[in-house]
Amino acid sequence: MRRVLGRIALLLSVTASAGAAAETPATESRAVEITDFGIYVAGPMTHVPAPGQLSGQRWQAEVRHVETAETIPGQLGRIFGIRFRVTDPRLIGQTLTARIRHPKLTAETGRSATESSFTTTASANGRELGHFFAFEYTYEIAEGDWTFEVVHNGRVLAAKKFRVIVNMY
């Protein structure tokens, strides 16, 4: 699970982009807005210590959105996820959980997980936050539904579902 969690990046300085449809619960639709989603590319990755992650680290990099997509090819090096903006001023300074629900992943250590998460704080500067997953190891590539969520106090404020497919040819 640590390696899975270690591959998630939270990017705090990303540029604004056009809005996109997302599966956000209607009751919380104004609290967090998903601004783009799909496939991204990243500059050089830096791995930083993250003791709570399966691998003990997570990656950081500047990312650029290249394709709006809900179907994601499962390939080494592929990065996908969401960018979002906190729109409810009551959430400024509050802790948010960025969570991914995914098919069972089993690391080389034998540990398994069906969920990955980390926490962040909503800032008052109005910048977007990013929640991404990079397939850095073959065991991370799992076909099926992957759902990225933004959660506050147990409530899902925004969610986006992806379908990862693995082409065997």
How does this model look, in words?
The chain has one helix and twelve strands. The chain has about 170 residues and is mostly beta strands. The strands form three sheets. Strands 1-10-7-2-5 form a five-stranded antiparallel β-sheet. A five-stranded mixed β-sheet has the order 6-12-11-8-9, with no helix packed on it. It has a two-stranded antiparallel sheet with strand order 3-4. Strand 11 and strand 12 form a beta hairpin.
Keywords:
3% helix; 1 helix; 169 residues; Immunoglobulin-like; 12 strands
The major beta sheet can be summarized as:
5 strands, antiparallel
Number of domain units: 1
Q: H/E order of the elements? A: HEEEEEEEEEEEE
Number of E strands: 12
Rg on CA atoms, Å: 15 Å
Supply the helix-strand structural class: mainly beta
Number of helices: 1
Low confidence ranges: 1-22, 24-28
> What is the CA-CA span between the terminal residues?
28 Å
Strand fraction: over 45%
